[in-house]
Amino acid sequence: MAYTPPYPKPLDRSSKRSLWNLFNRGRRSWLETLYEGSYTGKISRIRLPGVQLFLVKFPDLIKEVLVDRYGVFPKHEIMDVTLKPLLGESIFTTNGPVWERQRRMLDPAFGQAKLKEVFTLMRGGSDALLERLDAAADGAIVDIEIEMTHVTADIILRTILSESLESEGARKIFHAFNLFQEKAVLMIQMSFLHLPLWLAPRTYRIWKRTGREIRELLAGSIRDRYEAYQRGEQGEHKDILQSLLETRDPEDGSAFTLPELVDQVAMLFLAGHETSASALSWSLFLISKCPEIQEKLHQETCGLLGDREPEFKDIPRHRLIRNVFRETLRIYPPVGFLTFRKAAGNQRLGKHDLPDGSPVAISPWLVHRHRELWERPDEFDPDRFEGGIEQPQCAYIPFGQGPRICIGAAFAMQEAMLILASLTRRYRFEPGPGPDPEPTSRLTIRSLDGISLRVWKRPKGERVVAAPDSPEDTQAEAAKCPFH
User: Fold this and answer.
1) How wide is the angle at C-alpha 417 spanned by C-alphas 298 and 303, nearest 5°?
2) DSSP 3-state assignment of 360?
3) 467 has pLDDT over 60
4) Residues 371 and 35: beta-carbon distance below 8 Å
5) Can you list the positions of beta strands (E) in 6-147?
6) Looking at the predicted structure, is the pLDDT value of residue 475 above 70?
7) Domains of the chain, start order
8) What one-character DSSP code corresponds to residue 287?
């Protein structure tokens, strides 16, 4: 029987909820404001004080917003206002020609060639995770969210700046960001309701201070490298920052300035560790609840690798790990509600007229659990991805869709498959004591009180002899892989 993971029970539509009640619920978790009817239909119009929000939930309309007419549905300024203390003018919040130039210049840093080049740096972060878990007692209870946050932050710093999380500056960044995202939720709510941010003075001060601290810490490493590059010192770095230093706009030949580099690196740190940490934490929880699937993952990984170090060529061959991770992204998409768009001018979307400036939201959480799109939508079933999925283009959108699809999607898939392969080969995971974790949505889908798992070391004798490499098999699996 398939496993149904925990998720917040939808509200009863018959019970009346005050706006203030929903505001408080949303402050704890946006998932607590959903009704059963939220998981059906194409588009919902939500009336709030002074604004109407249009929540788009069906693939054909999502495709209009994200793909076909993305130019008339730009990013809403709410994201710029609430994330600017950290992200500045980064690709995450900009629109129009500024965004187009940034995307042109960032794309090469995340191409297939660069992913191969930074694989060794990525594996260094994964190896450091294994060392930490090896140091724990066999059968120890581990808060896996903390470990996944650590490893993904470590990897993003290694691959961008060639620095590890063990450094003092990196640790400061890690802790400051946790505080920043905690305070950003209230700032987003207040901005959306047109309330001055200074009405929450303590939260406002912390939000501004932590954003500034992260940028200053990142800027130190970036400035040293930037100035060395300007002096003609090429150095031996093969990380993403080196690509950003060398890249030129193919249209006008311009390079990134130092402030632009800080903006983009801050964005990559935000997007590159928090979302991956969320998805990896839920992946490990799900396989801990499904021991048969976990054993198949172990057999697959041992059969491919044996005792040798994983290599870049191995990543697309882990078919079951890929299916497990993709199904995790469906059940628990890291970003439950994609950043808001807005209607530029009066627009028609489905049966609704959207006045100029109307906010438009798209929720992967709702789309991935839509009762009319998925069979058994609340069940965890990795086999649904075997051989691909027969769904409309925008029915599965963990990384968004269209021209603004997440620039780090391939990076995230490579990272996740490396970490999951390394962990399932070496350890066995069981649920920790107490109730199942409760999903909560702020900037990302996390658990309310952490995810505790019991971690057992597998004896070396359990490892299966690795099958010989087959170039044909490797190429066939690469063709199926979502980032090849």
Assistant:
1) 35
2) strand
3) no
4) no
5) 43-48, 51-56, 140-143
6) no
7) 19-480 (1.10.630.10)
8) H
